[in-house]
Design brief:
With about 220 residues, the chain is of the alpha/beta class. Helices cover about 40% and strands about 15% of the residues. The protein has one domain: TIM Barrel. An eight-stranded parallel barrel has the order 1-2-3-4-5-6-7-8, surrounded by six helices. The two termini are about 30 Å apart. The mean pLDDT is about 95.
């Protein structure tokens, strides 16, 4: 069964950049939190395991202070160990190869998000296994993942119509193109580059969140 989060799964979903300097990463994320972000995904593809654990623990501390939720990318067991709010898993990140294993391990109080790319059949499996949200994308060309498979806005809209769980759009999303993604039905916007590369991260987060208010 899906979890029952005490915050709605909607709004801006801040994806952290690969940064092995923990104080700098924490400062970036805190700026986003000050801008109103309530969902943060810790992802660092280049850090060794001890550093990932230390960084995730520091970000969890920050998120708790701002009433926000921290989701751990790729690592169910780290999420459980730290007491984070959930895990987000891609195609190759499933413990034992089973979505049900991940759902059972996280239990009833932690979030499970699943990358579904442009594959509605995968999304159906994820929802049946108890995913709390599904991620569709890359909706646009992605700076952080230039080789990522593309998923059209039509696929995103179809996922929203077909499944009862929130749909998270990911990949190349900016303040300028976000309105069309929201119009297609996205509940969450997963953003890395256009948030954390901004000169004023706090203000950029506020600009994204204002789009949800306008909708």
């Amino acid at each position: 069964m899906p979890a029952t989060p005490d915050l709605p799964l909607c709004g801006l979903y801040a994806l952290t950049p690969d940064d092995n300097l923990t104080p700098r990463l924490a400062a970036l994320v805190e700026s986003a939190l000050k801008g109103g972000v309530k969902w943060v995904q810790y992802r660092n593809k280049i850090a060794p395991a001890p550093l990932r654990r230390a960084q995730a623990a520091e970000l969890l501390r920050l998120c708790r202070g701002y009433g926000a939720k921290l989701i751990i990318n790729d690592d169910v067991w780290l999420a459980i160990e730290l007491g984070a709010d959930g895990a987000h898993l891609g195609r190759d990140d499933i413990p034992g190869g089973s979505l049900q294993t991940a759902r059972d391990a996280l239990g009833a109080h932690r979030i499970l998000g699943i990358s579904c790319y442009d594959d509605l059949a995968r999304a159906e499996v994820a929802v049946e296994a108890g995913a709390d949200y599904i991620a569709i994308g890359s909706v646009f060309a992605s700076v952080s993942k230039p080789a990522a498979a593309r998923a059209s806005l039509e696929v995103l809209a179809a996922a929203k119509r077909r499944f009862a769980v929130p749909v998270c759009a990911i990949g190349g999303i900016t303040v300028d193109n976000a309105p069309q993604v929201l119009a297609a039905g996205a509940d969450m916007l997963a953003v890395l580059s256009d948030l954390f590369n901004a000169m004023d991260i706090k203000r950029q987060a506020e600009r994204f969140l204002a789009l949800f208010d306008a909708r």
